[in-house]
Amino acid sequence: MPGLITMDDLSNDEILSILDDAERLLPVAKGELYLPLLQGKILGNLFFEPSTRTRMSFETAMKRLGGDVVNLGDVKTSSVVKGETLFDTIQMVDGYTDIIAMRHPRQGAAQYAQDAARVPILNGGDGAGHHPTQTMLDLFTIRQSHGRLDGLKVVLAGDLRYGRTVHSLSHALTRFGCELIFASPELLKMPREIVEDLGAHGAKVTETEDLLGSIGTADVVYMTRIQKERFADEDEYAKVAGAYKLQAANLEGCKEGMIIMHPLPRVDEIHPSVDATRHAKYFQQAFNGVVARMALLCRLLHVEVPANIGGDA
Question: How far is 217 from 103, CA to CA, in rounded Å?
């Protein structure tokens, strides 16, 4: 595969194979072993929107595997402010690197970049579109906790209208036969075309505004923040800000193995009291960005992950 723009670029078998690679790479991601599989390779980090976890985990992943990274840096100090087009930027970075990770505010920009590039593009988020590398680390976290992906009951809550993480994840979970509950304010419901597409692929979907009434039988609760930066109208944002606030007291009666995830950053939708509960997995999830992206970098650069990392030769 040339790059990873949406989850449609991966078959279910490829998803599971990459997750298996990620599992083997865990000691490398933790710094317990050094395995320079990507020595001599260079990753170009092109982030046209702010990022902490995605950008840093890509950089950590590449360096843990012995590769190197060049960063676009602050867009304000790049040639973008001189009027350089995305096409020209991609053409230029394409000549410097072996693979590119890109985040862009415009939906569809990742596919446009892949069409312009010779090297693989990893979509690190394109507007309110897709975020497939986040989906891969989310799937890794779910499988790590439950031992499987198939047949789980998953609540996706918060900003489902603009949240690219839940757009990608809902499609992936549908492919593994999960039951989906979409909990959101009316203004932030999952886009109708996505719900209809999921239904056409056999998904069992329930839409509700009642988050707390939905979590008692859930295996996974995936919280998201209300994204102020996606609202053109401040008044519209004010109507939904703080719509959901999950606290430790809300978790009584939940399944013992239920996990709470969040792509982060959080604002006030998960109270710090939840952090100490057995359900909280969002910081582990953030770390898993390193191991999932390590596996993806290897796959797209056609580098095989050894079967016996850290074991006997």
Answer: 35
What pLDDT score was predicted for residue 275? 97
Annotated catalytic residue 255: no
Looking at 76, 82, 192, 302, which residue is catalytic? 82
Average pLDDT along the chain: 90
Is residue 308 in a domain? no
Residues 240 and 203 occupy one common structural domain: yes
Catalytic choice (54, 60, 135, 224): 54
Residue 131 annotated as catalytic: yes
From the candidates 24, 41, 103, 225, which is the catalytic residue? 103
- Catalytic: 245? no
DSSP letter at 81 equals G
Query: Do 150 and 198 lie in a common domain?
Result: yes
Residue 82 is among the residues annotated as catalytic for this protein: yes
**Model confidence, pTM:** 0.91
Task: Specify whether 125 is located in the same domain as 140.
Answer: no
Which entry of 24, 53, 143, 164 is annotated as an active-site residue? 53
CA distances from 118 to 90, 93, 113 (A): 9, 10, 10
Domain containing 257 equals 132-286
Q: Say yes or no: 78 and 144 in one domain.
A: no
Say whether 239 is catalytic.
no
- Poorest-pLDDT segment among 72-76, 109-113, 195-199: 72-76
The mean pLDDT value for 37-50 works out to 92
Q: Residue 201, Cα to own-chain centre: how many angstroms? A: 22
Give the rounded percent of residues in the chain with a pLDDT score beyond 90.
Answer: 71
Task: Clarify whether residues 18 and 117 are in a common domain.
Answer: yes
Q: With H, G, I as helix, E, B as strand and everything else as coil, classify residue 272.
A: helix
Q: What does DSSP assign to residue 274?
A: G
